[in-house]
Amino acid sequence: MITKEIIKMYDTIIVGGGVAGLGAAVYCGRFELKTLVLADKIGGTIILTGDIYNYPGFKKISGMELADKIKEHAGDYGIEIKEEKVSKIEKHGNFFKVNGYKTKTIIFATGTEWRKLNVRGEKEFSGKGVHYCSLCDGVLYKNKIVCVVGGSDSAAKEALMLTQWAKKVYIIYRKEKIRAEPINLKRVQESKKIEVINNTNVVSIKGDKFVNAVVFDKAYKGSKEFKLDAVFVEIGHIPVSGLAKGIGVKLNDKNEIIVDKDSKTNIKGFYACGDVVDSKFKQAITGVAEGVIAAYNAYEYLTKELPV
Fold first, then answer.
1. Cβ contacts of 240 within 8 Å, gap of 6 or more
2. What pLDDT digit, counting tens, does each position of 209-250 carry?
3. How far is it, in rounded angstroms, from Cα 52 to Cα 181?
4. Is the dihedral of CA 178, 184, 186, 187 positive or negative?
5. Calpha distance 58→66 (Å, rounded)
6. Domains, the chain
7. Alpha-carbon dihedral 237, 243, 248, 252, rounded to 10 degrees
8. Residues 206, 121 contacting (CB under 8 angstroms)
9. Has this prediction a pTM greater than 0.70?
10. How many whole angstroms separate alpha carbon 257 and alpha carbon 127?
11. For the stretch 123-136, what's the b/e string if a residue is b when 16 or more beta carbons lie within 10 angstroms of its beta carbon?
């Protein structure tokens, strides 16, 4: 006798396990929605962040601690959470399939990935002196000379963190002034270990087995070649939106998902939140808020709009 496999239907599947997705999970639990969270890494990129000082309610908390607390809160509501990379999303009438799981709605919270420099030597020396996370790899460079490429607030914070280990940290930025928040700019300026090299681009990375120099697009102190031990790249992030695009979700010219104030996309039942969407101000707290809004509107759709 042949029996058909019965596939459980979820009310919502949250794709992404960072704080935006986990924040959405808390409220899905409060709304008693049958919810599954799928992510290849629970906690998201914030777990690679050191101390956070701007999340309301916590004067100081690490990224890992914050993600763990929100995950624990979601767990109190019986939310299913699986570390599983999502490779396929399909639309079938009034429901979706995510890796074969069936769901009436999706909350998409995949965040971003690090933008690469795309210069000669970057790929060759990845993990051998080229890095994208000071918290992960900075400890390898005790008493060494390192640089951070970038001029954002994130670049400033990377440089400040690296001063815990490195004896000298250079910030290499292509424009006139770095764009850090005032408090972090002041800390950079007051640090005896940090020096900013402005109006300069890294055009290649050199080394033997490991990085030993970078090459600038113009001379600095008489030479375009600059000796150092590691390059930390912090030049922004790229939205991980390909799976959403694949089923027709509209993106802007930055490949961010276009959402309205209710975290709705152009596809009914498909919501998005966090760093992957087109919101201007991207912070952990705003991502969590967008996740909560997405959860609420998914609940509204399930109870008032979705055809039975």
1. 110, 111, 112, 113, 276
2. 999 999 999 999 999 999 999 999 999 999 999 999 999 999
3. 14
4. negative
5. 9
6. 9-113+237-305 (3.50.50.60), 116-233 (3.50.50.60)
7. 0
8. yes
9. yes
10. 31
11. eebeeebbbbbbbe
